[in-house]
Design goal:
The complex is a heterodimer.
Chain A lengths: L1 E10 L3 H11 L4 E5 L15 E2 L10 H11 L6 H21 L13 E9 L4 E7 L5 H15 L3 E4 L1 E11 L2 E11 L5 E11 L20 H8 L4 E2 L4 E8 L9 H4 L3 E3 L7 H4 L9 H13 L11 E4 L4 H8 L1 H11 L8 E10 L3 E2 L5 E3 L5 E7 L4 E2 L11 H23 L12 H11 L7 H15 L3 E2 L1 H18 L13 H25 L8 E2 L7 H4 L1 E8 L6 E8 L13
Chain B lengths: L1 E3 L18 E9 L9 E9 L5 H12 L18 E4 L2 E4 L16 E6 L6 E3 L2 E2 L2 H9 L19 H6 L17 H5 L6 H11 L7 H8 L13 H5 L6 H14 L3
Parallel strand pairs in B: 1-3, 2-6
Antiparallel strand pairs in B: 2-3, 4-5, 4-6, 7-8
Helix pairs in contact in B: 2-5, 5-6, 5-8
Classes of the chains: A alpha/beta, B alpha/beta.
Enzyme class (chain B): oxidoreductase
EC number (chain B): 1.3.5.1
GO cellular component, one term (chain B): plasma membrane
């Protein structure tokens, strides 16, 4: 066991983690622990843009952006947080530009902006050009720019250090975060990092689904660790399905394609979004477009031999727009489906994409331990966190915004908190014991269950039963399946017993987190007997503000993978926007 | 050693059902785990696969159902994160961007796919190499925007043409396909290598940057751009289609004529 001591430890090196590190690293002694090399993080897969009301190409202001975010989130958004995000978006984009991000430019040399789903002029009048972008690799450019600036500032990284636990020390005022415990992939060694503050920035858990835009490594580790500590998770039933995944594969095709004018069509060539969202059509928010696509298929108007997808028609955009503004997705379609978007429409279907819920935080990134109290020294930002700026459905581009605005805030808050403390709070006794036991157990012989089998079955039941549309019956099936898989997980066998880069062990540990989070998602979806944003219940098709205008809060009751989940609620923060019917 | 999916000693339980249209292919992999092995070896696996599968799918099949000790990096699985660079049939590729259909033998001959770790970096285990020397070279060229004086309140202005000037080299995902395909890098590990120069180019030709001279000084070093012998392996290897050799030539020219 090795021991380290820092002021601030940041877990995860995607957009939120590195944005936090740039702030924290200039103020306090900071370490970034990441299970991947920083530039492998999934921020790099984001494509379309990052919205900010710069008004570089047409009239816009941050209040409209705030409203769009709240309405897009079906009014489950905490309005104070949305206002902060929209207001700080402008500086967030300008900061990135000053750090060197190569945005596309207008003829005057300013940052260019494009249309995106749900972003409108004057409270819904028409689509507005708000998304700042770098071709269709905006996320790649953000990740690279943040990494470049971490290099510039000499940020200390511990690459391929897989954090498996955090240290909470009990005090008379409740638990305080005092560090993190990591498994070093290269050696199998356990490292304890004592810290005054710890920031989670570990991303999402899309791998609970089979068809997903998410990387293999997005297994909800941070959320899982927090949940196992008895701390709450918020709004986990709200999972976003991005409308345009490559059919059958789930690889993301940016909404920016529709922002540039691409059109969704059914088998007969009809522009079906005109029926579902007459004003902004194909640029309706993702939940609405995904449901519309699923309905087209369910009602027999799908395209292809099995009528199981719809078509994204980019052919009228011309080769030049595709090659210069959408080059990556053009290549994805060519490489993976052998379809050339220049001459033929691309088969698409919704793909599991983004967790609106996560570790509950306030606007400073401080993690909540219940509705009213924070865990001193513990922070979270990005997809693993729930501020909540996305409510029941995130608008496109707002995730890149979220990681920059709240990553920065969490980094500053974590560093300032650390600097305000004279000394480190003592670690709990034997801080590495739980992780050592977990690793030893996984490596010991106690069964014949294969990790891949359990994961495959988990993903299959989640796709079939907890996807775009849900009912009491499908969710009960999913819950039953997940619980049975958890029982089987107790008998897994890891074949690689070595200490060196044991990715077999890593996958087994990751599966544990996936099972944990899948159950929370399903429990939340069962309890929420309404339809709101990304959570669509066929048996409860309407939004029910009387009973469900509130956040869900999930607590793990006791130890072990099969422990019960307690569901509580937290009020939504309103400032100036009253809930209205959501029409586009 | 030849191991088939059915008979490998380490394999547990039944294999997943073989999908319609699958063909059997032989995947021959260079294995080495310094924890247990004295020498590298070749393992072969006969496995079912679909023509539409990525090579990464084949590796996952082996890891998940035949031999869990097989070790490689991967993450996004669609050519964006740069984790899974490896030598596939002798050329550097991302395993998630090569489809089996493009490797299949004509006629009824069974296809063999050979997979090795990228060359020139120390092998840590199987297909997983030590990336630290690669990133060290990257960090050495000041791969970030260098500016002096006060920052403007709004964004810096940059014309569409100036932005276009360095567009190609902004695509780099740091996968190391280029650097580890370079014969000079294989023999002279101290050479910065193509990827570092690509990332220097990305800033040298950015009209907003004021660090070109510092960077050019670094690249004028004995291990800098002059080591490049214009073999074009790097350009062929780049999964992002970057004109790597051209970028290196532009940096050389900037050094010769002292302007960018």
């Amino acid at each position: 066991m090795q021991f380290h001591k820092y002021d601030v430890v940041i877990i995860g090196a995607g957009g939120a983690g590195m944005r936090a590190a740039i702030e924290s690293g200039q103020r306090a002694r900071t370490a970034v622990l990441t299970k991947l090399y920083p530039t492998r993080s999934h921020t790099g897969a984001a494509q379309g843009g990052m919205c900010a009301a710069l008004a570089n190409v047409e009239e816009d202001n941050w209040e409209w952006h705030t409203f769009d975010t709240i309405k897009g989130g079906d009014y489950l958004v905490d309005q104070d947080a949305a206002e902060i995000m929209a207001k700080e978006a402008i500086d967030a984009v300008l900061d990135l530009e000053k750090m060197g991000l190569p945005f596309n430019r207008t003829p005057e040399g300013k940052i260019d902006q494009r249309r995106f789903g749900g972003h409108t002029r004057n409270h819904g009048e028409a689509a507005v050009r708000r998304a700042c972008y770098a071709a269709d690799r905006t996320g790649h450019m953000i990740l690279q720019t943040l990494y470049q600036n971490c290099v510039k500032h000499g940020i200390e990284f511990f690459n391929e250090f897989y954090v498996l636990d955090i240290c909470l020390t009990e005090t008379e005022n409740g638990p305080v975060c005092t560090g993190a415990v990591a498994y070093e992939l290269a050696t199998g060694e356990i490292h304890v990092f004592q810290a005054k503050s710890v920031v989670f920035a570990t991303g999402g858990f899309g791998k609970v689904f089979k068809t997903t835009s998410n990387a293999h490594t997005l297994t909800g580790d941070g959320m899982g660790i927090v949940f196992r500590k008895g701390l709450p998770l918020e709004d986990m039933e709200f999972y976003q399905f991005h409308p345009t995944g490559l059919a059958g594969l789930g690889i993301l095709l940016t909404e920016g394609a529709r922002g540039e004018g691409a059109i969704l069509r059914n088998a007969s060539g009809e522009r079906f979004m005109e029926r579902y969202a007459p004003t902004i059509k194909d640029l309706a928010p993702r939940d609405i477009v995904a449901r519309s696509m699923a309905l087209e298929v369910l009602e027999g108007r799908g395209a292809g031999p099995n009528k199981d997808y719809v078509l994204l028609d980019c052919t009228h955009l011309g080769a030049e727009v595709l090659e210069t503004k959408l080059p990556d997705i053009t290549e994805f379609a060519r490489t993976y489906l052998a379809v050339d978007p220049v001459v033929e429409p691309v088969p698409v279907y919704p793909t599991a994409h983004y967790a609106m819920g996560g570790i509950p935080t306030n606007i400073h990134g401080e993690v909540l331990r219940d509705n009213d109290n924070v865990v001193p020294g513990l922070y979270a930002a990005g997809e693993c966190a729930c501020v909540s700026v996305h409510g029941a459905n995130r608008l496109g581009t707002n995730s890149l915004l979220d990681i920059n605005v709240f990553g920065r805030r969490a980094g500053i808050a974590a560093a300032e908190y650390a600097l305000s403390r004279e000394s480190h709070v003592d670690l709990p006794e034997n801080p590495a014991a739980a992780v050592e036991a977990q690793v030893a157990l996984a490596l010991s012989e106690h069964g014949q269950e294969r990790v891949a089998d359990i994961r495959t079955e988990l993903q299959a039941t989640m796709d079939a039963n907890a996807s775009v549309y849900r009912t009491e019956d499908t969710l009960k099936t999913a819950l039953h399946d997940v619980q049975a898989l958890k029982e089987r997980y107790a008998h897994i066998s890891v074949q690689d017993k070595g200490k060196r880069f044991n990715t077999d062990l890593l996958e087994a540990v990751e599966l544990g987190f996936l099972l944990e989070l899948a159950e929370v998602l399903v429990v939340g979806a069962l309890a929420r007997k309404e339809s709101r944003g990304g959570h669509a219940r066929e048996d409860y098709p309407n939004r029910d503000d009387t009973n469900f205008m509130r956040h869900s809060m999930f607590y793990k009751q006791g130890e072990g993978l099969t422990a019960d989940i307690r569901l509580d609620y937290k009020p939504v923060t309103f400032t100036r926007y009253k809930p209205m019917e959501r029409k586009y | 050693m030849t191991a088939t999916a059915e008979t490998t000693a380490g394999s547990r339980g039944s294999q997943p059902p073989v999908p319609d249209g699958a063909v059997t292919v032989t995947v021959k992999i260079r294995r080495f785990n310094p924890e247990f092995d004295d020498e590298p070896r070749w393992d072969s696996f006969d496995i079912p696969a679909l023509p539409s599968d990525r090579v990464l799918n084949l590796l996952h099949y082996i890891k998940w159902y035949v031999d869990g000790t097989l070790t490689f990096r991967r993450s996004c699985a669609h050519g964006i994160c740069g984790s899974d660079a490896m030598r596939i049939n002798g050329v550097n590729r991302l395993a998630c961007k090569v489809l089996l259909k493009d490797l299949l033998q004509k006629g009824d001959k069974q296809t063999t796919i050979t997979i090795e770790p990228i060359k020139g970096l120390p092998v840590n285990k199987d297909l997983l190499v030590d990336m630290e020397p690669f990133f060290e070279a990257f960090r050495a060229v000041k791969p970030y925007l260098v500016t002096y004086g006060n920052e403007p309140t709004r964004e810096r202005i940059q014309s569409v043409a100036d932005r276009e000037r360095f567009d190609d080299t902004t695509k780099c995902i740091l996968c190391a396909c280029c650097t580890t395909s370079c014969p000079v890098y294989w023999t002279e590990g101290s050479y910065f290598g193509p990827a570092a120069i690509v990332n220097a180019h990305r800033f040298i030709f950015d009209s907003r940057d004021e660090g070109a001279e510092e960077r050019l000084d670094i690249l004028n070093d004995i291990d800098g751009v002059w080591r490049c012998r214009t073999t074009f392996n790097c350009t062929d290897a780049c999964p992002r289609g970057i004109q790597v050799t051209k970028a290196i030539q532009e940096v050389k020219r900037a050094l010769l004529f002292k302007r960018v």
